[in-house]
Specification:
Largest sheet: 5 strands, mixed
Strand content: over 45%
Order of helices and strands: HEEEEHEEEEEEEEEE
Shape: globular
Number of helices: 2
Low-confidence stretches: 69-87
Radius of gyration: 17 Å
Mean pLDDT: 80
Strand order of the largest sheet: 5-7-14-9-12
Number of strands: 14
Structural class: mainly beta
Oligomer: single chain
């Protein structure tokens, strides 16, 4: 494995992809694995979530996915990391989104009960870019994004479709996640503002 201080072009491409999806949440490169076809880069963001990033030559990111680390963390550190997926809280109603100092994004893990909705509220300005990525674990979810005036910025769509776009109003934007299924669904939502 190469020295991690010498970050490769492939690792830089993965870092850029992570920032484009979730904002500048900080983090580190954990390692790289090489094969003839591609390179896999492992990353950990500033919230403690780990990712695997597959990169083709170029470098071009083919896939970036979060890795569930529950089994590897063990009981001795369960819940020790703030925001870790070890115990996703059940959410509903309005949740105010705040970013850590020096960052422009966050990742939140939560559980949404059957037939309920949660609204993530965040302040943003006209001209900024919003990135939203909702990944459900074990069920289907939908989400939509509302402008501060209550109009739709992005209509209801499946959680497997990420959103990236420029905002045209200033104020409190709302990301509304909907569980229309008959069972609770645990999910991760990445929100970034650039």
């Amino acid at each position: 494995m190469p020295a991690l201080s010498d970050i490769s072009d492939e690792a830089n491409a993965c870092i850029d992809e992570l920032i484009s999806r979730f904002g500048n949440v900080g983090g580190e490169v954990l390692g790289q694995e090489f094969s003839e076809a591609a390179i896999m880069v492992r990353l950990r963001d500033g919230n403690g979530f780990e990712y695997e990033c597959i990169v083709w030559s170029g470098p071009e990111v083919a896939d970036l996915r979060r890795v569930d680390e529950n089994a590897e963390k063990g009981d001795d550190v369960e819940g020790a990391m703030d925001g870790a997926p070890a115990s996703a809280l059940t959410v509903s109603g309005d949740q105010v989104v705040k970013f850590d100092a020096g960052t422009s994004g966050t990742t939140i893990s939560a559980t949404l009960q059957a037939g309920t909705t949660v609204r993530y509220v965040l302040g943003a300005s006209d001209g900024q870019f919003l990135n939203v990525n909702v990944g459900s674990r074990g069920g289907a979810l939908d989400y939509k994004i509302l402008n501060p005036d209550g109009s739709l910025l992005f209509d209801l769509i499946s959680s497997d479709t990420p959103y990236q776009g420029q905002l045209w109003q200033s104020g409190e934007h709302v990301i509304e996640v909907v569980n229309e299924s008959s069972q609770p669904v645990t999910f991760d939502i990445g929100i970034g503002i650039n």
